[in-house]
Structures are given as structure tokens and as C-alpha cells.
Amino acid sequence: MFANTVRSLLPRRAQSHFKRNLHKPFVKIVEVGPRDGLQNEPTHVPTDVKIEFINKLSETGLQSIEVTSFVSPKWVPQMGDNTEVFTKIAKKPSISYPVLVPNVKGLEAAVSVGAKEIAVFASASEGFSRKNTNCSTQEGVNRIKEIVEKTKSLDSTLRIRGYISCVVGCPYDGYIQPKAVTTICESLLSLGCYEISLGDTIGVGTRSTMEKMIKDLLKITSADKLAIHCHDTYGQALVNICTALDLGIRVVDSSVSGLGGCPYAAGATGNVASEDLVYMLHGMGAETGVDLKKLISAGHFISEKIKKPTASRVNKAMYKKYFQ
Ligand SMILES: CC(C)(COP(=O)([O-])OP(=O)([O-])OC[C@H]1O[C@@H](n2cnc3c(N)ncnc32)[C@H](O)[C@@H]1OP(=O)([O-])[O-])[C@@H](O)C(=O)NCCC(=O)NCCSC(=O)C[C@@](C)(O)CC(=O)[O-]
């Protein structure tokens, strides 16, 4: 369905997500490994390793790489080297390097180092909002409003991407009703986020819960305003991504080597592995602009450095074929 219906589902504004090759739909991948992937690592990953990792990712053809976060280092010590990472990576003009910010303090720090894109985050569930950001969901939206207001005086050209966490399930509150997601999504879009990434933070979503949630969202916005962000705890990520693709979403977040988890979502594993996602998309006839071999090399590099076997099945299957 995905390949055949892609053009008929495609809203006008999403045309930029497609190459001019009319036969191949384009899916944009937002690589979140350096931020979402590494934030939960218990042992400090040396800053020069992070920089080399991001530089390798920059060579793969990815268009967007979330490189760090400007959150409180008391809450997430692993991201405490944000300034050094952001300023020392070799940036390519064709790539966006968003950073995650939780409040005006984070925004000011991000802008001071030259960030051109930030990601803000809210939760569809009260429980996760309190554990992750020490505030209610409404207070979280209010903080985002403050961030947006501040960008007007700091840098009005800054691009702002929004995340909603726990879109189908929360480690503290259980199942999340689609209405909670729709409400937050409407707020973030009205504040000016150019895109909302829907986070299945603990990977509990199934095809049916994802479909219900996205279909509700499509009553208030269009698919080109949405992205999907699936953790793979229950092995449902690729299926859930296919569900999102079938409903017209063309931006997918992923983490090379399947790195990651959230420090405030105990037990959640990493995002869908970028290598597995690219392999699947290319196999479906979609274009990503990503060189799978280079991606596998970047995934292997970081897995070796953090001394963890890759969680990417494609990496496991193909690394030897390419490199040994
Ligand atoms: C929101 C806060 C700050 C509230 O934390 P708080 O403790 O309520 O805030 P506070 O204002 O009292 O600040 C506490 C201390 O942190 C400092 N501080 C405050 N802000 C900053 C900042 N920006 N940068 C640097 N320092 C900061 C502040 O100055 C103070 O320092 P002190 O006076 O004690 O020395 C905290 O809860 C926080 O940083 N939370 C972030 C947690 C996080 O990063 N979680 C992971 C990312 S979200 C995620 O992974 C989900 C996602 C996006 O991937 C999608 C998905 O999968 O669903």
C-alpha cells in the first residue's frame, strides 16, 4: 500500500519530502542516536567519541541528526558536554543539527552556540511529564510557550520541532487515550512547531493503538506535520512505522545501532535501529538518501566504543559482508 498510494496520500506541503523521481517515495530519517541514543548510557561516553560518531553520521546522507540536549546536567549528566559536542562537530550545510531543549535556559545556551534548530518536548501523560521534566503536562506546554516567545527576541529564524512522549502508553499511567495526544499536538502546532514527532517512548504500541492515535490526529492536522518516533522494547517498531507510513507520515526518527532509552522510562529500550529502518525502506522501494554501508559503519563504531553489541539486526547480518 505504501509505495502505491504514496502520491495520492501526500499532502501538498509534503512535496519537499519527495525527490523528483516520481517512482520512488522519499522518507526523511531523523537520526536521534547521539541524543536519545546516548543520553541513557550509564558510563560517560568521551566527548571526542561523540564528535567522531556524529561526524561519521554526517557522511551517511542523513538530512537531520539530533546531536545533543541542553537539559539540566543534574538530570541527564551524559549530555553535560553539549556545548563542546555542538561546537566541535564538522557541520555540513545540507544537514540540520537539532538540539533538545527543555526550557528558556536551555534555549539560551543552544542559541549561544549557534543552534539553528531546536526540539522541544511535552508528554501526553501526566506521570511521565512529572518524572521527566518535574512539571504537569500543561506546565510543560507553558514552558514551550515561553521558549517560543523567547526565540522571537533571540533568533526568530530558529526552527522548532516538537516531541510528544508516551503517545500510546506511559510507564506510570498505562494506556494513553488518543485525545490526550491530540490536545497536546494542537497546542504545539499552534505555538509554531513545524513538525510533531510522536514518541512511543516505551515501545508498547501495536498496529491498532498506533493507527487509532494517528487517525485521531489526522482529524486536526495533516500527515506532513507529523513524524513517528518508535522505541523497540516490544519489537513492534517497524510494524508501527509501517502503520504510520500507510497513514501518510513521511518522517521517521531512528537511532543507529538501536541505541538508547530514556532515563525516566525504566525498562524502555532504544529506538528502532536506523540500519533496520533504512534496509526496510529501501526494500519497499522508498528513497532515504542514506548510504546503508556507511550507516552500518557508524553503528559499528559507536557500539564498539560503548562496548555494547549492536541492537540492529541488519548491522549484525551485514557488517561482516561489507567490512570483513
Ligand atoms: C526541565 C528540568 C530542567 C526541570 O528540572 P527542575 O529541577 O525542576 O528545574 P530547576 O529550574 O529547579 O533547575 C534545577 C537545576 O538545573 C539547572 N538547569 C535547569 N535547566 C537547565 C538547562 N536547560 N541547562 C542547564 N542547567 C539547567 C538549574 O539552573 C538548577 O541548577 P542549580 O541552581 O540547582 O545549580 C529538568 O527536569 C530536565 O532537564 N529534564 C530533562 C530530562 C531529559 O532530558 N529527559 C530525556 C529527554 S526526553 C526523551 O528522551 C523523550 C523523547 C524526546 O526522546 C521522545 C520519546 O521517546 O518519547
UniProtKB/TrEMBL annotation:
CDD domains named among the record's database cross-references: DRE_TIM_HMGL
Keyword annotations of the record: Lyase, Metal-binding
Origin: domain of life: Eukaryota
Uppermost EC category: lyase
Signal peptide feature range: none
This protein's pathway: Metabolic intermediate metabolism; (S)-3-hydroxy-3-methylglutaryl-CoA degradation; acetoacetate from (S)-3-hydroxy-3-methylglutaryl-CoA: step 1/1
Keyword tRNA processing attributed: no
Domain Pyruvate carboxyltransferase positions: 27-296
GO MF annotation terms: hydroxymethylglutaryl-CoA lyase activity; metal ion binding
Gene Ontology biological-process entries: ketone body biosynthetic process; L-leucine catabolic process
Catalytic activity: (3S)-3-hydroxy-3-methylglutaryl-CoA = acetoacetate + acetyl-CoA
E.C. code: 4.1.3.4
Protein family per UniProt: Belongs to the HMG-CoA lyase family.
UniProt protein name: hydroxymethylglutaryl-CoA lyase
Organism of origin: Tribolium castaneum (Red flour beetle)
Taxonomic lineage: Eukaryota, Metazoa, Ecdysozoa, Arthropoda, Hexapoda
